[in-house]
């Protein structure tokens, strides 16, 4: 099972990606997170249903300093996340 998240608000320049990656590691999720040129953050995460629920809940508030306005979630093919690791990607 995999989800694609798009997080909008004040989510860049405050360590959101690193904190998201730490949460993903703690939840044993694989996938990636990156900043977007429009100021949002996006991520694709794969793992068990409860861990995915937890990361989605966490994404709604993020780390200290974040001001999350919205989180959109779309189910995606878990084949998009195949190496079992979690990566912080470059801005796209």
In short:
It is built from two helices and five strands; from the N terminus they run βαββαββ. With 92 residues, it is α+β, with helices and mostly antiparallel strands. It has a five-stranded mixed β-sheet, with helices on one face.
Query: Which of globular, elongated, flat, extended, rod-shaped describes the shape?
Result: globular
Unreliable stretches covering 5 or more consecutive residues: none
Distance separating the two termini: 24 Å
Number of helical segments with 4 or more residues? 2
Quote the beta fraction: 35-45%
- The side-by-side strand order for the widest beta sheet comes to 4-1-3-2-5
Structure description:
The chain has 92 residues and is α+β, with helices and mostly antiparallel strands. The chain is built from 2 helices and 5 strands, in the order E-H-E-E-H-E-E. The protein has helices spanning 16-26, 49-59; strands at residues 2-10, 30-35, 41-46, 67-76, 86-88. It has a 5-stranded mixed sheet with strand order 4-1-3-2-5, covered by helices on one side. Strand 2 (30-35) and strand 3 (41-46) form a beta hairpin. It starts with a strand and ends with a strand. The mean pLDDT is 95.
């Amino acid at each position: 099972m995999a989800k694609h998240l798009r997080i909008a608000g004040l989510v860049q320049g405050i360590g959101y990606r690193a904190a998201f990656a730490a949460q993903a590691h703690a939840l044993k999720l694989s996938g990636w997170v990156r900043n977007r040129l429009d100021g949002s953050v996006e991520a694709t995460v794969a793992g068990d249903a409860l861990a995915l629920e937890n990361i989605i809940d966490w994404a709604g508030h993020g780390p200290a300093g974040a001001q999350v306005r919205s989180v959109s979630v779309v189910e995606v093919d878990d084949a998009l996340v195949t190496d079992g690791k979690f990566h912080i990607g470059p801005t796209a």
